[in-house]
From TrEMBL:
Residues 6-235 form the ABC transporter domain. InterPro entries: AAA+_ATPase (IPR003593), ABC_transporter-like_ATP-bd (IPR003439), ABC_transporter-like_CS (IPR017871), ABC_transporter_ATP-binding (IPR050763), P-loop_NTPase (IPR027417). PROSITE patterns: ABC_TRANSPORTER_1, ABC_TRANSPORTER_2. Keywords: ATP-binding, Nodulation, Nucleotide-binding, Transport. It comes from Luteolibacter flavescens. This is ABC transporter ATP-binding protein. One of its GO terms (molecular function) is ATP binding. Belongs to the ABC transporter superfamily. Coiled coil: none annotated. SUPFAM superfamilies: P-loop containing nucleoside triphosphate hydrolases.
Length: 250
């Protein structure tokens, strides 16, 4: 089995008296893509933000590359990267310049060449000289994805990377993720409300509900577990408060 890259161990996050993440444990190995699913408010972003070290867990531990996140955040973040619609790049700076600045922050060798390659890979070379703040939501997502790939991360956190993309571009993003999986074998944690994304790119799925992992397995196992036709139906069942344990066999 490949190396464990990310370990989330009994992680809890409370905001005052409200528990947003309630004792979550899982691992992501090198070369594996794990989908984090859940209805609005399930705790996905809170979990991602803890893994990025942006907020501190109330309890439990997060380790990456065998190191404790609290103690080794900078070392870990040099080998990791993320794409989220919530963090935007400086708006008054041109796309190319923004990416080159981030490439230097990540100590990327030959930063100009790397940025040109990623602009080409994401088919956004024509946006290079535009101010980042003037991009459409979909363009901005692709620029954020380019940023996320600058340091060839061994741990990649993708928070709804296809939100706000049209179906054509969303399809290209899924192909790009598969390309990165094949070429570089990172550990990827991927959240999406688009079940097609999850079915196409994820090896395993964690279903988060009210801050707890309700079910874990391959998309196929989860679908069978809930006796539904596909993940979308499982999602709807959970969202509407249907039975969350598998019904007894007849
Ligand atoms: N800073 C905060 N203070 C208080 N409550 C918070 C805070 N951040 C998140 N929450 C609450 O924690 C819960 C989980 O939020 P989170 O953003 O993690 O959900 P999510 O699964 O990412 O949802 P979505 O799919 O809508 O993005 C929500 O009920 C939210 O209101």
């Amino acid at each position: 089995m490949s190396e464990v890259i990310l370990e989330v161990d009994g992680v809890i996050k409370r905001f005052d008296n409200f528990t947003a993440v309630d004792g979550v444990s899982f691992q992501v190995r090198a070369g594996e893509t794990v989908g984090l699913l859940g209805v609005n408010g399930a705790g996905k972003t809170t979990l991602m933000n803890m893994i990025l070290g942006l907020i501190t867990p109330t309890g439990g531990a997060i380790r990456a590359f065998g190191m404790d996140l609290q103690k080794n955040r900078m070392e870990i973040l040099q080998r990791a990267n993320f794409c989220t619609t919530y963090a935007t790049l400086p708006g008054n700076v041109k796309v190319r310049n923004n990416l080159e600045i981030f490439a230097r922050l990540y100590s990327v060798p030959k930063p100009k060449q790397k940025v040109a390659e990623l602009l080409d890979l994401l088919e956004i070379s024509k946006l290079a000289e535009k101010a980042t703040g003037q991009l459409s939501a979909g363009e901005s997502t692709r620029v954020n994805l380019a940023k996320a790939l600058l340091n060839d991360p061994e741990l990649l956190l993708l928070d709804e990377p296809t939100a706000s993309l049209d179906p054509d571009i969303a399809d290209k993003v899924r192909k790009l993720v598969r390309h990165v999986q094949r070429e570089r074998h990172p550990a990827i944690l991927y959240t999406s409300h688009n079940m097609r994304d999850i079915e196409e790119v994820c090896d395993r799925v964690l279903f988060l509900h009210a801050g707890k992992i309700l079910a874990a397995g391959t998309p196929d196992e989860i679908t069978k577990h809930f006796q539904e036709d596909d993940l979308e139906d499982v999602f709807i069942k959970i969202a509407r408060g249907g039975p969350v344990t598998p019904p007894k066999s007849p």
